[in-house]
Design brief:
Blueprint (H helix, E strand, L loop, with lengths): L3 H16 L16 H11 L9 H14 L6 H10 L11 H15 L4 H13 L10 H11 L6 H14 L5 H17 L7 H6 L1 H16 L1
């Protein structure tokens, strides 16, 4: 189970650092807004009962992976904020989740004290998770996309649990249609020249992820 207090702390630290305030200083009149209400709104979104994979556990895992990759980012705290927002709006039967999540960031972050430029960067990163195809000169995008896809490189039992959770989220889709759709997604991923873009992701996650995707595709099409 996710540690809500720890997540609130992680959000607060990333937001404070991104807006240039001291995490050890108490709030004072005229200071930036308290980060906790914003954290709680996002935690409630990630806790929606319809979610099976895109849950607080996924959020925690992505944040953990950003921590692993942070040296590759230009601004790891903006990447962390983007991780918080990247699936904040999630309806399995809708195709515009990333866009709606980015717009949520564009509304919430200026209220929370983030600059226009920093807000724009977070929203850009959220939108990038539609394709997971960051440019070669986009270290922030590479870190977020690699952190989001790191689940693909999990050990076999964790990967099986991931695929089961995805199927539960799409329980409204008939079995044959789900298998066809999922197989198409797996083929698209396997056709990419590379799944991961950071040096760590390329070295540590590329090969096991491709093995997992290939094994899943074989199961779906056999």
């Amino acid at each position: 189970m996710a540690d809500l207090d720890a997540l609130r702390t992680r959000w607060s630290h990333a937001l404070h650092r991104s807006r240039g305030t001291d995490t050890s200083s108490p709030s004072s009149p005229g200071a930036s807004p308290d980060p906790i209400p914003y954290a709680d709104d996002l935690l409630a979104r990630w806790s929606e009962p319809r979610r099976r994979y895109h849950t607080l556990d996924h959020l925690t895992a992505v944040l953990d992976h950003v921590d692993v990759l942070e040296d590759a980012a230009d601004d790891p705290d903006l990447v962390r904020l983007a991780a918080w927002f990247h699936d904040a709006v999630y309806l399995p039967d809708r195709s515009e989740n990333e866009e709606r999540s980015a717009r949520l960031a564009e509304r919430a972050l200026p209220e929370a004290g983030l600059s226009a430029a920093a807000t724009a960067e977070v929203a850009r990163l959220v939108r990038l998770t539609v394709t997971h195809a960051p440019a070669d000169d986009d270290p922030n995008g590479q870190v977020l996309c690699d952190a989001d896809l790191a689940i693909l490189a999990s050990p076999a039992d964790a990967y099986t649990a991931y695929t089961a959770a995805v199927r539960e989220e799409y329980a409204f889709v008939p079995p044959d249609a789900f298998r066809a759709g999922r197989a198409a997604i797996l083929r698209q991923l396997l056709d990419l020249p590379r799944l991961f873009h950071t040096p760590y992701g390329t070295k540590e996650w590329e090969d096991p992820a491709r093995r997992n995707l290939t094994d899943e595709l074989t199961l779906l099409t056999s």
